[in-house]
Specification:
The chain has no helices and eleven strands. The protein is mainly beta. The protein has a four-stranded antiparallel beta sheet with strand order 4-5-6-7, with no helix packed on it. The protein has a four-stranded antiparallel beta sheet with strand order 8-9-10-11, with no helix packed on it. Strands 1-2-3 form a three-stranded antiparallel beta sheet, with no helix packed on it. It starts with a strand and ends with a strand.
Length: about 120
């Protein structure tokens, strides 16, 4: 059966959490077909616009007001890594095939580009 899904990320605001929302959940994986439902939620994430990248196996989020990227496993629905950088990340995108490892392209606050080959882990600027 054909399924359709989308991923949304949010930025948390330093206010009192309301009872209807969990304050530390910032990435949500929704499935639209066959029945609309929330499939997964990933905690400890707060992202700016353009700071979310997705491939078939992982979700990458650049954290708002921090110089780290969180890596989440879509298969296990958990956080796999927190990757620190020297500057705040203002945007990120994944280049390469959706089902392959690809290269994560990160833009920094200082105007630099960082290329991170996801499979081998080292980041190059």
């Amino acid at each position: 059966m054909l399924t359709e899904s989308f991923i949304a990320s949010t930025r948390s605001i330093e206010k009192k959490a309301q009872a209807t929302t969990a304050k530390d959940i910032g990435v949500h994986l929704h499935e639209l077909q066959p029945i609309p439902s929330l499939r997964s939620s990933f905690k400890k994430s707060s992202t700016q616009p353009n700071c979310l990248a997705v491939n078939a196996t992982h979700i990458f989020t650049a954290q708002a007001d921090k110089s780290v990227v969180h890596v989440y496993s879509r298969e296990r629905s958990n956080q796999e890594a927190v990757v620190p950088f020297q500057e705040k990340i203002t945007c990120l995108a994944l280049a390469g095939p959706y089902h392959g490892a690809g290269t994560l392209v990160l833009g920094t606050e200082g105007g630099r580009l960082i290329l991170w080959e996801v499979r081998t882990s080292p980041a190059m600027s």
